[in-house]
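User: My instructor asked us to take a sequence, write out its structure as tokens, and then describe one feature of it. I'm not sure where to start. Here is the sequence I was given:
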Amino acid sequence: MAQHPEHGAHEAHDSHEAHGSLKSYVIGFVFSLVLTAIPLIVVLNDMLEGTAATVVLLGSAILQFVVQLFFFMHLKEEGKPRYNLMVLILGLIIVLTIVGGSIWIMANNQVA
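Assistant: Let's start with the prediction itself. The structure tokens for your sequence are:
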């Protein structure tokens, strides 16, 4: 007659269990370390200057963002419909519009 409370909790826990393995977390962590070390080494050792350094920094930042999404936030494991992905894309569009518009206004609103 009495149902064991841990049985119901176990089923709910098992449905969220497939987030990632230790292997995927270690791979993501190593990628994160490498993508953090690359711009640090480039800047501290004056390997690149100007636009080239900026490209390396931004490229590493974008790759770091992708690694975080796939290895730690499990974006690739999302079922259908992909609401989280759509919300992420909308948020990125809004942020890029605000930042790009702000830079454009600052660049074209110089006092003569």
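For the description part of your assignment, you could build on this observation: The CA atoms of residues 19 and 73 lie 9 Å apart. Try explaining in your own words what that tells you about the chain.
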